[in-house]
């Protein structure tokens, strides 16, 4: 496959991904693999196909991906090592999660290669990300208005939310961070272009974030705005952040525990989750349990058989999840890769948006396991790919 054909295929895959993105968990299919029930997302399938295109398309990998080979080798080593502790079928299921992360790494590289070949896609994809966030927000608002009671989803392994904007991701925390990303990008576009349509987008997205009642998303959004203010010194950002914070006490408080911002149940459950994850980390602190063997680890070390739960394979803190599955060595390699990405950012408005979203995500991911959430990985892959310097990369 020649380079031009590979670039065209990447174009099609990227826009197919963006088309599917707003539907979130709604399009997921339940598949039985080696006796375990797993969810297959169409967006993951689309992203996966960027991997063979990069391998066989003769377009190469970015230079800042040098550490990725070590990270993949560590992941493979961790999975092989985990065969001592876990059943091979459980390890095979965990390997699928690892393949997902590798695929999104390839997706990031593919976006970078696409933008390097066709610079016009920087602005096109930046605007497309605002659009998909806005679609997620509008669908969430429709759900909040017409289907506020989602307690019936508890029977299917989801949390029982009432009078909260949950959206197509069926979780206010994950929906909230996608909305926060969109709000940050809309504000960046307004600063750059001065068009009021972006302020309208920001207003819709801000309302949607507030109605999610996701405190982690509130904090992440304000942190992202703070980073933008530091980079641009625009007083408008301080005004928007102030209005957002002042609106929180005036949110409606209908029936339901989830709308109480002073709720403590989720804080207690997170503390329990942190403690459980730390216990797993202690079993193999250097190389971890293998990515992603969290379900198997919970079952063996915590006597917690929650295979059907959507929280089974994660932890409430993404950093603790990386430590549990990849160990200290894995965390160091991840930080090294992030350092390589950061020093290759362009000194422009796109990189300001990426930096604001990334730091917002780091904060958010300590309360909700959002750092390696598929749609977050895809969103940040696109935003990162258009923010990197072609010459340095």
Structure description:
- With 393 residues, the protein is mainly alpha-helical.
- It has one domain.
- The chain is globular.
- A two-stranded antiparallel ribbon has the order 1-2.
- The longest helix is centred in the N-terminal third of the chain and has 30 residues.
- The mean pLDDT is 87.
- 46% of the residues are buried.
- A hairpin with a 2-residue loop joins strand 1 and strand 2.
Please give a quick description of this structure.
The chain has 393 residues and is an all-alpha fold.
The largest sheet is:
2 strands, antiparallel
- Work out the helicity level: 55-70%
Share of residues in strands: under 5%
Compute the separation of the termini in Å. 23 Å
Structural class: mainly alpha
Read across the widest sheet, the strand sequence of neighbours is 1-2
Mean pLDDT: 87
Q: How many strands appear in the DSSP assignment?
A: 2
List segments where confidence is low: pLDDT < 50 over at least 5 consecutive residues. Answer: none
Ordered list of secondary-structure elements with their pairings:
Blueprint (H helix, E strand, L loop, with lengths): L2 H18 L8 E5 L2 E5 L1 H7 L1 H7 L9 H17 L5 H30 L3 H26 L25 H22 L2 H17 L2 H18 L2 H13 L17 H19 L10 H8 L16 H25 L6 H16 L9 H12 L8
Antiparallel strand pairs: 1-2
Helix pairs in contact: 1-2, 1-5, 4-5, 4-13, 5-15, 6-7, 6-8, 7-8, 7-9, 7-14, 9-10, 9-14, 11-13
